[in-house]
From TrEMBL:
Cross-referenced Pfam families: Mob1_phocein
Protein name: MOB kinase activator 3C
Molecular function per GO: kinase activity
Key word Nucleus present: no
SUPFAM superfamilies: Mob1/phocein
SMART domains in the cross-refs: Mob1_phocein (SM01388)
PANTHER family given in the database record: MPS ONE BINDER KINASE ACTIVATOR-LIKE MOB
Positions with a binding annotation for Zn(2+): C70, C75, H152, H157
Organism for this UniProt entry: Pelecanus crispus
Highest taxon, organism lineage: Eukaryota
Amino acid sequence: KTFRPRKKFEPGTQRFELYKKAQASLKSGLDLKAVVQLPPGESINDWIAVHVVDFFNRINLIYGTMSEYCTEKSCPIMSGGFKYEYRWQDDSKYKKPTKLSAPQYMCMLMDWIEMLINNEDIFPTRIGVPFPKQFQQVCTKILTRLFRVFVHVYIHHFDSIINMGAEAHVNTCYKHFYYFIREFSLVDHRELEPL
C-alpha cells in the first residue's frame, strides 16, 4: 500500500538531463561526497528537486520491500528506538502532532510527498516557471521526514534488510542521502542524532 510507482522526469527536459548526470555519477563509482555537489552552472533548486524526487523513489522502494515486516502489531508507534518517537502532522487532517503506527505514518508520508512533488506550483516542470520562494523549506520538510524512514528501518528492521540481501543497497542509498542533506544543510542536525 505504501509503494508508489516511480516519479519520472520527462525526456528532453533540463531536470531529465540533471537526473541522468546524477545517475551516471552514482554508477561510476565516484566518491558520494563529490557526487552530491552542485554541478557548475546548474540551478540549486533544480538540483534539489531532482534529488528530492529521486530520494522519494528510492526510499519508497526500500520501505516497500520490507513493509511486510513493519506492521501495526510489530510497530504500533512510528519510532527510531526508545528515545525517538515521530508523530504525524499535516495541514489538513492532522493539525496537531498525532501518534500513529509506523505503517500508518509511512502511508501518510508517501501520500503527502507524492502530492507535493506532483504539485506544479511547488515542483514546476515547465521551462521558465520559477520555483516558489518556500521551495527549499518544503524540501527540508520532505527530506527530514524521509530521514525518519531510514531511522525506523535501520533501528527496527535492519535484520529483515540483511535477510533480503539488500543492506548494500540501503547503505549506499543512505550515504548518498546523508551526503546530500549535509552538503546543502537541508536537515537540522538534531534530526540526525538517531543514526
